[in-house]
Design goal:
The chain is of the alpha/beta class. Helix content is about 35%, strand content about 15%. The termini are far apart.
Length: about 325
């Protein structure tokens, strides 16, 4: 499966930045080399996308790029951290553009105690290293992407995974969780078992809308909201607000003749964002671009206009947390 970012299609809807003076920290994006699944996305493209908004810093999240080709298999993901550290260094030579302020790498936590060597190698590779994502997103449906080495939906219950997960707390590292909405109760079990480890749920828990989930948005929203409410009772869990424009959420934005406006995004996705904020609270929520994945469906300027319009309904202190403050706290960003 290969999706395509269509710059000419996105260019049909152009908006000025809403409240361009508001500071933004984007806590979730990727860099890609040209590959089978995603097109190239580099520093130049990121900084071009972020230019209209006041994006001070970003957080790179692992995506399987530039792993070492040789050496011990467990240590190969450290190559990605080294690669992004080099990109962050290059960004610092452009001080008036978005800076890469933190890196979330990956490690095979199912190695148990042995994964400690990998975590330490990441830390040595970059002072920006903040945590690990080992994606758990899994579904049996053929239409739903599985881009991880997991073979079932219960990664969070695996005893070996939990043995490796236990090492994050002692190193002050966070865990980014990515799974599909029906796996959220399992994340709750994990968060309850490790109450002092900071866990960040990516992409609002991904309420699917393709394959057997197509046409069931209202039904799935009810289940998604119920499980999110339960997860919010665990104070060590934070939430990234974004990812709804991914094609497998089934909103069909990428299939339209014209890309969406920010007002259309607010109308279509607003209930998810508002429920999440009202449940978790702004101090535990952060808007994320998930670029370039969400770029299949919407431009960066339009997406963050929608986020800012949603945030504008909240008091100033909460708005600042949603757009920048929570991300700064969780990923220990400078400034």
């Amino acid at each position: 499966m290969k999706y395509s970012v269509r710059e000419d299609w996105l260019a049909q809807v152009v908006e000025p930045a809403f409240e361009p003076a508001w500071e933004v920290v984007d806590p979730h994006h990727h860099f890609f080399s040209s590959g089978d699944f995603f097109q190239r996305y580099d520093l130049d493209r990121l900084q071009a996308d972020t230019a209209a908004h006041r994006v001070a810093q970003t957080v790179f999240v692992q995506c399987g790029e530039h792993h070492f080709a040789t050496g011990p298999e467990a240590l190969r993901p450290v190559g990605e951290t080294m690669w992004v550290d080099g990109i962050a260094t290059a960004a610092r030579s452009r001080p008036d553009t978005a800076q890469v302020g933190a890196i979330v790498g990956t490690a095979e936590l199912r190695l148990g105690a042995e994964v400690g060597k990998v975590l330490d190698a990441h830390a040595l590779a970059s002072r920006l290293f903040r945590g690990i994502r080992l994606a758990a997103a899994y579904d049996d449906a053929e239409a739903v992407p599985v881009m991880t080495p997991v073979t079932d939906a219960a990664l969070y219950r695996d005893p070996d995974f939990r043995a490796g997960f236990a090492l994050l707390e002692e190193r002050g590292l966070s865990f980014d969780a990515w799974h599909y909405y029906h796996q959220t109760p399992l994340l709750g079990e994990l968060a309850s078992a490790f109450p002092r480890t900071v866990i960040v749920l990516d992409h609002l828990g991904t309420p699917l809308g393709v394959g057997p989930y197509a046409g069931r948005h209202d039904e799935i929203f009810t289940v998604w909201a119920r499980d999110l409410d339960a997860l919010a009772r665990l104070p060590n869990v934070y939430l990234k607000l974004g990812g709804l424009a991914m094609p497998w959420n089934g909103f069909g934005l990428e299939q339209r003749d014209l890309p969406p406006t920010s007002d259309e995004i607010v109308a279509l996705h607003g209930r998810y964002y508002r429920h999440a904020i009202d449940t978790f609270g702004a101090s535990r929520c952060m808007f994320e671009s998930n670029f370039p994945v969400d770029k299949f469906s919407v431009s960066y300027t339009v997406l963050w206009n929608a986020f800012k319009k949603i945030a504008s309904a909240y008091p100033a202190a909460e708005r600042k947390a949603l757009l920048a403050g929570t991300a700064k706290q969780v990923y220990r960003l400078d400034g």
